[in-house]
Amino acid sequence: MDVLKLFLATLKAAYNKQITIPELTQCVAEMDTKRMSANRPLTHEEISLRTLWFNIAYLTLESLERIENKKEHIAFHDDVDKALKETLSVSLETRRTYTLIIDEKVMKYLGREVIETQPPSTPGARAEAAMLTYSLKIIDVMLAVVNDERLANENNSGLDGNGIGPPRPNIPGAF
Questions:
Q1: Which of 113, 115, 105, 108 is nearest to 136 (CA)?
Q2: Whole-prediction pTM value?
Q3: Is residue 74 situated within a structural domain?
Q4: What share of the chain is helix, strand, coil (3-state, %, to 5)?
């Protein structure tokens, strides 16, 4: 879980610096070619999965910004090319599959009233169902990263709203 949080914190930093997903994908691919972080070249499936995580993480941050700032939702049928250029290039497929789910999770995170939606149905393949389940985890952990960052940046003498102090790693039974 800590490795996933670090991965997503890095993606959040890239998002904040407005590094587009294609730029990020190319940069990471070049580093993988040189360093082979898995001690071997990554498979096409691994690269696709990593790119999906980039997209889901960016879409989560985009949704959080949009909902917090009450910006209008990007319509799929209204000038999609323009809308995608205005964002950091979240893929249309990811946008179509995950926008409603992410918006619901962001609304819950912000403590706003939510109309429950159902996750998109998968054609029954176990691998696709597992992919969806893990994608939902990416959304939740990204929101935890955002929350941790907000807690760390509070200026109440190091205490959060509950008087607890700076965030600590979530280690069950440690505190």
A1: 105
A2: 0.74
A3: yes
A4: 60, 0, 40
Structure tokens at 111: 């403590």
Note whether residue 40 is domain-resident.
yes
Residue identified by tokens 């955002």 is 146
Give the DSSP H/E element, type plus range, for residue 28: helix 21-35
Helix (H) or strand (E) segment spanning residue 119: none
97 within domain boundaries: yes
pLDDT in tens, 129-169: 777 888 899 999 999 999 988 887 776 555 555 666 655 55
Annotate 121-164 with DSSP letters as a single string.
Answer: PP-S-HHHHHHHHHHHHHHHHHHHHHHHHHHHT--STT--TTS-
In the predicted model, what is the mean pLDDT of the chain? Answer: 79
- Residue 87: what pLDDT? 60
The residue whose two tokens read 């999770």 is 105
CA-nearest of 109, 16, 86 to 57 is 16
Residue 162 falls inside a structural domain: no
Domain span holding position 41: 2-148
Specify the number of domains making up the chain.
1
Report pLDDT digits (tens) over 101-120. Answer: 999 999 999 998 876 655 55
Judged by average pLDDT, the poorest of 44-48, 63-67, 129-133 is 129-133
pLDDT higher than threshold 50 for residue 75: no
Specify burial of residue 61 (Cβ count, 10 A radius: 0-12, 13-18, 19+): buried
